[in-house]
């Protein structure tokens, strides 16, 4: 009987340990140095709009762009012509050149209004060269724009859902120039961790060395260097094996992220609280000022009209009770302890900052 109880307890312990151990693939934790995307940008014109284009009197560069385009097509616009182009909009086009993009490959582009166009819905982007940081043309973009927003206006009232001045063209650009790369020519691969972590760097290095795919060595908290074995000089084959290895994820740093613009508070499961006392209340001050006008009793008495300001200040303070927050060792307990304060997210930001200053919050506080 005791033996069966011991086995049951051991099995339950193993199950708990297995649930606590979390493993991720190396491909989800690192990136390969030198293998990255490159940004492309271009200036173009969108035509075919239903009267929602730029107001050319306020965006003269749209008219100038149209004149330059027409001149390249052999059409000369008479000097002094005041074109009212309600169906044309000047836009900026952005795209990402893949790490191993090949000539003729199609990539997605994002089109954004540059002037004061009301909507790009139904528009067509004319051929636009996309340049890199070296001012070289790497792709050409053209096609119909897909706008996710919608809107309507009538009688001075308008309704709009999402953004109308930006859209996307799936496969709207074609790569015309390839970016040179020396990948595959050396015998060293540098893996860059997504987050700085000495423990993670060491675990990735140990996982690679245990499988014999190369000689791995962590250089710092961000980089793991892998030297290929003699006779196995293919970086592609080595990376194909390395990226699918599972690595147990160590405990993360306890963090609390506060976004002061949106009032959101996010914390991970490693956050802990020490016992402390918190007094939280709201102080409101209302100032009301009125002008009292005093006039003479009779119209011809010779008196003057006197204006006397009357100010009333009302100060109210609610809450303010001293509440005890018990020590909490897991995320659920931390949330319950903070909920007992009855504070709003805005108040919670100040409370968490004060808790960290007092040493009650066992976490790093980041304010965005």
Automatic annotation (TrEMBL):
GO biological process: bacterial-type flagellum-dependent cell motility
UniProt subunit comment: The basal body constitutes a major portion of the flagellar organelle and consists of four rings (L,P,S, and M) mounted on a central rod.
Sequence similarity: Belongs to the FlgI family.
GO molecular function: structural molecule activity
Top-level taxon of origin: Bacteria
Protein name, per record: Flagellar P-ring protein
InterPro entries: Flag_FlgI
One protein family per Pfam: FlgI
Keyword ATP-binding annotated: no
Keywords in alphabetical order: Bacterial flagellum, Cell projection, Cilium, Flagellum, Signal
GO cellular component terms, semicolon-separated: bacterial-type flagellum basal body, distal rod, P ring; outer membrane-bounded periplasmic space
Function: Assembles around the rod to form the L-ring and probably protects the motor/basal body from shearing forces during rotation.
């Amino acid at each position: 009987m005791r033996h069966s109880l011991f086995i049951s307890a051991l099995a339950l312990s193993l199950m708990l340990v297995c649930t606590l151990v979390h493993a991720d693939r190396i491909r989800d934790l690192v990136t390969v140095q030198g293998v990255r995307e490159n940004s492309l940008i271009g200036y173009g014109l969108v035509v075919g709009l239903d009267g929602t284009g730029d107001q050319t009197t306020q965006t003269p560069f749209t008219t100038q762009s149209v004149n330059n385009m027409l001149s390249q097509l052999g059409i000369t616009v008479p000097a002094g012509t005041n074109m009212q182009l309600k169906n044309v909009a000047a836009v900026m086009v952005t795209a990402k050149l893949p790490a191993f993009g090949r000539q003729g490959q199609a990539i997605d582009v994002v089109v954004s209004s540059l002037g004061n166009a009301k909507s790009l819905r139904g528009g067509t982007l004319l051929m636009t060269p996309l340049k890199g940081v070296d001012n070289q043309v790497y792709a050409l973009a053209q096609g119909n724009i897909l706008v996710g927003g919608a809107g309507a206006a009538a009688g001075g009232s308008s309704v709009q859902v999402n953004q109308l001045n930006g859209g996307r063209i799936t496969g709207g650009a074609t790569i015309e120039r390839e970016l040179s790369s020396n990948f595959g020519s050396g015998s060293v691969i540098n893996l860059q961790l997504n987050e700085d972590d000495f423990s993670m760097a060491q675990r990735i290095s140990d996982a690679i060395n245990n499988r014999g795919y190369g000689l791995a060595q962590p250089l710092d908290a961000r980089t793991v260097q892998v030297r290929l074995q003699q006779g196995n000089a293919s970086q592609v084959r080595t990376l194909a094996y390395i990226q699918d290895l599972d690595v147990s994820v160590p405990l993360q740093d306890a963090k609390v992220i506060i976004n002061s613009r949106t009032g959101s508070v996010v914390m991970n499961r490693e956050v802990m609280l020490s016992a402390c006392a918190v007094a939280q209340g709201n102080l409101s001050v209302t100032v009301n000022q009125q002008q009292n006008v005093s006039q003479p009793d009779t119209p011809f008495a010779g008196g003057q009209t006197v204006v006397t300001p009357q100010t009333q200040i009302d100060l109210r303070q609610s809450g303010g009770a001293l509440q005890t927050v018990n020590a909490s060792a897991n995320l659920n307990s931390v949330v319950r302890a903070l909920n007992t304060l009855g504070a709003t997210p805005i108040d919670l930001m100040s409370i968490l900052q004060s808790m960290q200053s007092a040493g009650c919050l066992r976490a790093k506080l980041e304010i965005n």
